[in-house]
Amino acid sequence: MFDLGWSELLLIAVIALVVVGPRDLPRMMRTAGQYMAKARKVAREFQATFDELARETEVEELRREVASLKSEATAPLSEMRKDLDKAMQPPSSTAGKQAGSAAIPETQLDGLPEEMADQIRETQEIEQSGEAEDGADEKPASKAPKGDA
Fold it and tell me: Could you read off the pLDDT of 123-146 as tens digits, one per residue?
């Protein structure tokens, strides 16, 4: 910062000794040291604030980059899912949506891998057996005997 050699420092010390005097010189040097410490502290805090802002900016950029990479990576999967959902819907899908569990015809299962078609068939069988059991479980509620009120 300042290019001071030993000769310049010696000259400044002699002038300070003459101007301030030997009695007040230690007190003046201590006060000057305290001011220098305060100035350095303010400079460190200022630098730390800028460093923190830089880190936050970097973190935000990394978050955006990760989000874009995630969307790029999951885009093919979402397209495949849409295609699969489209293939799984029966031809009269507009009327069948309110039913909830419509059976998928065997003709639509032919184009799917064998494992997936087997899982769909098993799911349909479970749903059908569950619906049959629900209908059998529904019994009229028996009247409770009237007691003393």
Answer: 888 877 766 665 555 555 445 455
The reported pLDDT for the residue numbered 71 is 84
Give the DSSP H/E element, type plus range, for residue 7: helix 6-20
Non-local (6+) Cβ contacts of 127 within 8 A are 101
Question: How many angstroms separate the CA atoms of 86 and 101, rounded?
Answer: 15
- What does the alpha-carbon distance between residue 133 and residue 125 come to, in Å, rounded to a whole number? 12
Token digits for 84?
């699969």
pLDDT of residue 134: 58
**103 CB-near residues (< 8 Å, 6+ apart):** 124, 128
